[in-house]
Write a structure and sequence with these properties.
Oligomer: single chain
CATH superfamily of the largest domain: Zn peptidases
Strand content: 15-25%
Distance between the termini: 25 Å
Largest sheet: 7 strands, mixed
Order of helices and strands: EEEEHEHHEEEEHEEEHEHEHEEH
Helix content: 25-40%
Radius of gyration: 23 Å
Number of domains: 2
Length: about 350
């Protein structure tokens, strides 16, 4: 792996080690803080009188990793031995795209030696009384659009104009953006619920650059676009369409990043892993709310190589504060998460071999 970016693996041997294993994934890193905007030391894990634990990573995702470890500690103290081997894994760099973390690791013999059948990963907090369940993600694309044209005095009609070419290309992206925004407002997903952000493709113009001064027509202009492509989209076909948008206006389309997998883990009766998660939630009186993750986690690299992966953070009735100031989690929810994982992990480890990919 990458020097200075270790991957930590804690293995709990199962009673039938020939079976494929269960992986409990966490990422080590957190995003930076603007300390002046925090009411308490962001790395002090300050617990308030009401039980709120204020800390960077409290939601994203220290609570999940701690939940795994504490659950395993409780189970081992009770003498529980899982049927399948369980690996608690802590990886680097998720917050900056995972290029030196999970993305590289899944292609190594070291990862393959773990013989993973299923992975549990992070989710998000939920302001409602349910656990969010993430079974897929949108594919992140970063696109640079470059237009070139004639240069000259700002008093003339310069043809072809780099900026006009760029604007006409961007118009196509904006038209697509508006159509997806409309679809989000009126359509429903496979569970019969109104579409959510993860079900549609978002498009945002995030960078623009052209010109040196007001009275000089620039010979080059470029823009950066961030797209998150929904799992329902054929990525190859859509990529060709995006390239065509540029070709129609004489601009160049460069994919600075184009993750070419938006594979999802089906949540149906044929998915025995999902059945175990749903059963444990029902026993605990917890509602599950499935949806497509709107951003990106390390699970996308696992699904890309064909492994089923589901993301859950046991956080309900709590504002979504990942990457925000004063990120917190109440201690009662932290304990609730430990109890949830303590019940779920042995159940996942007991899934029959018929579920193995």
């Amino acid at each position: 792996m990458v020097a200075g970016k270790p991957i930590c693996i804690l293995t709990w041997a199962g009673s039938e080690p020939a079976l494929k294993s269960v992986m409990l994934n966490s990422h080590i890193d957190v995003v930076p803080v603007s300390e002046s905007n925090w009411d308490h030391d962001p790395f002090g894990a300050v617990k308030l009188p009401n039980g709120d634990i204020v800390a960077r990573g409290a939601q994203d995702m220290k609570c999940v990793g701690i939940g795994y470890l504490e659950a395993i500690r409780v189970l081992k103290a009770k003498g529980v031995v899982p049927k399948r081997t369980v690996h608690a894994v802590f990886v680097p760099d998720e917050e900056i795209g995972g290029a030196d973390g999970m993305e590289k690791w899944v292609e190594t013999d070291d990862f393959r030696s773990l013989n993973v059948a299923f992975a549990l990963d992070e989710g998000l907090s939920n302001e409602e009384n349910a656990y969010k369940v993430y079974y897929g993600e949108r594919a992140p694309w970063w696109i640079k659009i470059t237009a070139k044209g004639g240069a000259g005095h700002g008093s003339k009609f310069i043809e072809p104009s780099a900026t006009e070419r760029l604007v006409r290309t961007l118009d196509k992206f904006v038209a697509f953006r508006n159509s997806e925004k409309q679809r989000l407002a009126v359509c429903r997903n496979e569970f019969g619920r109104p579409l959510r952000l993860g079900d549609v493709t978002t498009t945002n113009i995030t960078l623009m650059n052209a010109g040196v001064q007001f009275n000089v027509v620039p010979e080059e202009a470029w823009a950066g676009v961030d797209m998150r492509v929904a799992p329902s989209v054929n990525l190859t076909t859509f990529r060709e369409q995006v390239v065509q948008w540029g070709a129609e206006e004489g601009t160049t389309i460069e994919f600075v990043q184009a993750f070419m997998s938006n594979a999802a883990t089906p949540l149906n009766d044929g998915n025995l892993w999902w059945q175990k998660i749903r059963s444990v939630a029902e026993q605990r009186g917890v509602e599950l709310d499935p949806e497509i993750f709107p951003a990106a986690t390390d699970s996308r690299f696992l699904r890309k190589i064909g492994l089923p992966a589901i993301g859950i953070s046991c956080i309900r009735n709590t504002p979504v504060l990942l990457h925000d100031h004063n990120e917190y989690l109440n201690e009662k929810l932290l304990i609730e998460g430990v109890e949830f994982y303590a019940q779920l992990i042995p159940e996942l480890a007991s899934v029959p071999a018929t579920a193995d990919a």
